[in-house]
Amino acid sequence: MATQKTALILGAGIMGLCTAWALARAGWRVRVIEQAPIPNPRGASVDQHRLIRHAYGAQAGYMRMVVPAYAAWEMIWAAIGARHYVETGVLALANHQGGWLAESHVALRADGHACADLSPDQITTRFPMLSDTGIAAAFTLQRGGVLLAERIVAGLAAHLARLGVVFEAAEVAAAQPARKTLRLVSGAERSADLLVLAAGPWGPRLLGTGLTGRVVPSRQILVRLEAPPAFRAAWEAAPMLLDLAEDGGFYAVPPVAGTALKIGDHRFSRQGDARADPRAAMPSEIEEILALARPRLINAEAYRVLGAKACYYDVEDREEFILEAAAPGCFVMSGFSGHGFKFAPLLGLALAAAAEDNTLARALPGWAAGRDAPAPGLLAALESAP
Question: pTM of the full predicted structure?
Fold first, then answer.
């Protein structure tokens, strides 16, 4: 009888867990090392919400990956026995012509996605909690919604434990890709036939020159709000809001499935230390986010701040995902820049397929970066996933 292949995964965020799921269902014996209890409250994946939508500016490669990403999420829902997703649709606004919104409009229409243009007066009629001041362009998309991130991470981890995936709580001192080995702070080592490094904003420290200069941690502030009574029903029925300004703008996630209304910054701070910095947001950081949103909110002073926190992204300059072999038998997953969560099951399936096919492994980086169409072999592997 053939010996069962072993996989060692660093990181139990959404990338590590989805890769563990894909490898386990492909017959690998999997161990996941995580430095904190799962869901790790300091992890980049652990928050109430993450968004999935087709609008992607000029990055048509990622726009086209959203369709198979939805299919991969359906596989996750079937596996864990719960559907942690709420369809909301998308409302995109901009205070200027051109840029991301216009590029999205062109790409969506070219790919057959129906987006409906809105005039400022149509916006205030349909969404009475929003001001039309300064809107230069707007559209809606029916498809798009909220992934309930923390529930997904917890549910997937529990499912993997039932499958026999081993979770080890340990802090890693260094990764050694050529040896497919992790050296723990305790001095012990863990090795396997396959090593996957999915350490989020901790990755550059552990991999050194492999990611230094390519990926940086980025402290991002999220603010949870309670809308005034007159607008609560409108927000509960609202689409996700992408409010774009020439200097960045903000996004808003409606209060779905018992979660809070949340706003955040489109911009990346590109600073901070994910290991040491507190996750509590400072008053000045909260005020900066509120200042972005106030011009768009009717009766903005009546919104109550319920809480705020910082999370950390691992940001690649061009917002291109890094999914590549660091050495034979070792893959790096990094640079997800706040938009990777929606693709995690798809990327996990792709890595599991590439782990046993060198041709697919060579095609993986360009596809994951959104630049290349999937190689025929990769597409076939994803479509035939058991």
Answer: 0.95
